[in-house]
Specification:
This protein is of the alpha/beta class. The chain has ten helices and 50 strands. The longest helix has 18 residues. It starts with a helix and ends in a 16-residue tail after the last helix. It binds 2-acetamido-2-deoxy-beta-D-glucopyranose (11 copies). One 2-acetamido-2-deoxy-beta-D-glucopyranose binds next to helix 3.
Length: about 850
Amino acid sequence: MGFSPPSLSFILFLFHFLSTISSSHFCAPDQSLSLLQFKESFSISSSASELCHHPKTESWKEGTDCCLWDGVTCDLETGHVTGLDLSCSMLYGTLHSNSTLFSLHHLQKLDLSDNDFNSSHISSRFGQFSNLTLLNLNYLDFAGQVPSEISHLSKLVSLDLSRNYDLSLQPICFDKLVQNLTKLRQLDLGSVNMSLVEPNSLTNLSSSLSSLSLGDCGLQGKFPGNIFLLPNLESLDLIFNDGLTGSFPSSNLSNVLSRLDLSNTRISVYLENDLISNLKLLEYMSLSESNIIRSDLALLGNLTRLTYLDLSGNNFGGEIPSSLGNLVQLRSLYLYSNKFVGQVPDSWGSLIHLLDLDLSDNPLVGPVHSQINTLSNLKSLALSDNLFNVTIPSFLYALPSLYYLDLHNNNLIGNISEFQHNSLTYLDLSNNHLHGTIPSSIFKQENLEALILASNSKLTGEISSSICKLRFLQVLDLSNNSLSGSTPPCLGNFSNILSVLHLGMNNLQGAIPSTFSKDNSLEYLNLNGNELQGKISSSIINCTMLEVLDLGNNKIEDTFPYFLETLPHLQILILKSNKLQGFVKGRTTYNSFSELQIFDISDNDFRGPLPTGFLNCLEAMMASDQNMIYMNATNYSRYVYSIEMTWKGVEIEFPKIQSTIRVLDLSNNNFTEEIPKVIGKLKALQQLNLSHNSLAGYIQSSLGILTNLESLDLSSNLLTGRIPMQLGVLTFLAILNLSHNQLEGPIPSGKQFNTFNASSFEGNLGLCGFQVLKECYGDEAPSLPPSSFDEGDDSTLVGDGFGWKAVTIGYGCGFVFGVASGYVVFRTKKPSWFFRMVEDKWNLKSKKTKKNVGRYGARGN
Ligand SMILES: *[C@@H]1O[C@H](CO)[C@@H](O)[C@H](O)[C@H]1NC(C)=O
Ligand SMILES: *[C@@H]1O[C@H](CO)[C@@H](O)[C@H](O)[C@H]1NC(C)=O
Ligand SMILES: *[C@@H]1O[C@H](CO)[C@@H](O)[C@H](O)[C@H]1NC(C)=O
Ligand SMILES: *[C@@H]1O[C@H](CO)[C@@H](O)[C@H](O)[C@H]1NC(C)=O
Ligand SMILES: *[C@@H]1O[C@H](CO)[C@@H](O)[C@H](O)[C@H]1NC(C)=O
Ligand SMILES: *[C@@H]1O[C@H](CO)[C@@H](O)[C@H](O)[C@H]1NC(C)=O
Ligand SMILES: *[C@@H]1O[C@H](CO)[C@@H](O)[C@H](O)[C@H]1NC(C)=O
Ligand SMILES: *[C@@H]1O[C@H](CO)[C@@H](O)[C@H](O)[C@H]1NC(C)=O
Ligand SMILES: *[C@@H]1O[C@H](CO)[C@@H](O)[C@H](O)[C@H]1NC(C)=O
Ligand SMILES: *[C@@H]1O[C@H](CO)[C@@H](O)[C@H](O)[C@H]1NC(C)=O
Ligand SMILES: *[C@@H]1O[C@H](CO)[C@@H](O)[C@H](O)[C@H]1NC(C)=O
């Protein structure tokens, strides 16, 4: 019994001895065992790593030399593991304090970055790796607090704890770290919550520091200027600390600074001679949405080493300084979202290395060609939201590497010419005054992912079926043009990643594509406003991801397409203004239309009773959604949905749709019989339009439960009896139309009802009240509601104890307008910088959702 420890050390000794004499590198067995146990404590999951994928531990096999394993480095003499690099190894699981990782005492370099440790805490045992010089715990989903034992690692040269979004660093721990880690050269704490740490405590950071990254750390207060005195500081990144103030020193700077990012901070920067002469080595400068004061931008022309310059979002006015043409090393230049006027300076012809240029969202005017036609290396060009009123500069068509071209929202004129190369992946020329046909070279861009030529109104010709060669297309938006001919039948099945197909507002004829095949990814299909005929293709049921289907304003002759009720994610269904006819009978499946938020079948020839069966299933209309986000494609989230809709009596184009919207429009048909009580279940409805039908009977008092209603139109029906007093409590009601029915008795008074005038009530038998300038007498005084609220199953409608009194709280006209105006966003397409900002912020800030960021997430780097 007592012999086993000595015999183990003897074996170890033998190993050591053998490995020394054979000078091979056998792994010490205890190390091997520790590694294998560590391996066993995690599972391999492809979603656990995001930036790269190398499942290194898969090569680790018992009985082989661990020094040869992937990611493992040993001391050749001792067989001790001294280095472990498991970055991107797809490890998923919890890292406990009892992990055998901590038996690898001799580690000098440890890199575990980009795995998923499932909100583990960083164990204090990390402090025991006394010889560690490199520790990389980037992007591991660590949570909790950084243990102060990390400060024992006094030999650390490089420490990276960034992108663990639920990790925080306490002041005491940080102070110890500053005191003890005197050899640090790289420190990256990006996205670690340091909101309690005094910026002043950064003062004593090691003078050997060459790179300091504290982006998005929640730092608050005055940033100590003497940081910049650190003699070896080459890179400083403080992006997204909008609580950080103080000023950037103009003199006595570390004169080796090559990278500076003060974006989205409030640190004042005085761009003046002193500063510029101290920044001569700067290669990367990002001052996006920062606090630049008293500046002479022309001075930037002296920073001739710059390869990256971002001055976006700063409200700079005046002309773009021509001295920027001196920055001949520039690869990336971002001046979007400023107020630069005039033209692109001539001098820019010298920026021949430029790859990425974004001047979006400035009031710049053309012409552009004479200046930048030497920029033949451009890969990405965004000039959207400017005032360019010229033809598209011809040199753009000849750029051999151009993959991203966004010129939307200008006043560009003329034709679209042929592209001479096939490098495009993104093309947005929407909202201009372009005319002519779509050049055939566009259909040869075989990597094209988004083609957006919307709202040029004069693009003509037919949609060539060669478009179906673009197999990587995710977004195709040719809406609001004058395209004619038929829709190529192949549009239904040419790409199984197409998310958005918007051909609305053209002159397309013929049939709706009927070839939608299984496994397609379509989320948005809009063919509104064409001259399409025939039936609604049942192949649409293959579009199981569909969220928006808009076939309104065509010449479709069909009966109600029941098969649509099986689409599980359908949120918007618009079939208005067609020639649909017949009865609309209730649901045929369970869960039918349960996510529908907008249901518009107005202006058709439907008849018979209202579809009670469907109304009973519209679950999304029964519950309000408080999320104030815009509906967008899931697979291509930068594409925000738009629709045309009648909103409070006016046909409006909604360029964005808030996810809170709830609309039911069955108007202009010939629905008969009574309004069913189940309408009262649709409590989230904001707009209800049943006008111009042949509805009879009383107005249901249960409508009074629809407390979110902003617009109610029951006009031009055959409704009789009194207006239920319950409607008087609809506090958001801004539009009411009960005209042209056979209503009688007193009009409810108070609250919103006092704001409606006679036109809301005209053409009825005998309504009285001050709104119609007719006094009510005796027995006409407000009394019981016509159809008693207590009868029948109305009680289920009020469910959850939602009493009448409660809803009157919150009444106020101003509020009504506030709520209502939120839906109507005027047609301003988002500038491209917005997407980049959102995506960059997403990259930096978002939780590890492991959601596909898309190809443009890292654009510009
Ligand atoms: C991940 O964390 C969750 C929540 O704490 C826990 O339920 C789950 O078991 C953990 N999974 C692993 C593999 O550790
Ligand atoms: C390590 O600790 C965890 C949690 O305390 C426990 O579930 C696990 O069994 C332990 N593993 C070993 C090998 O002791
Ligand atoms: C740490 O490094 C020193 C000096 O190289 C060495 O003597 C010592 O054994 C190392 N400690 C461990 C635990 O590897
Ligand atoms: C500093 O590091 C040494 C070991 O290198 C350790 O003994 C000491 O406790 C550390 N001090 C602090 C404040 O962490
Ligand atoms: C950071 O920590 C502070 C203090 O613990 C907390 O109030 C704050 O909400 C945290 N910030 C974030 C973004 O989690
Ligand atoms: C920096 O270090 C000096 C000397 O050790 C000390 O006096 C001073 O208080 C420290 N400053 C901060 C802000 O911690
Ligand atoms: C900037 O360059 C101009 C002309 O090249 C020169 O006259 C000026 O002195 C330079 N300024 C600084 C601060 O280097
Ligand atoms: C373009 O805009 C400029 C400045 O507003 C104007 O002077 C010029 O006439 C416009 N050109 C065309 C072709 O409209
Ligand atoms: C659905 O797609 C498949 C091919 O993927 C096709 O055979 C089938 O007919 C389609 N369904 C309908 C209803 O058109
Ligand atoms: C797009 O949708 C996602 C998920 O619903 C949401 O988080 C995001 O904010 C939306 N984007 C915009 C621009 O509204
Ligand atoms: C509506 O339907 C009713 C009953 O079917 C019928 O009498 C009436 O003529 C129809 N009205 C219109 C405008 O078609």
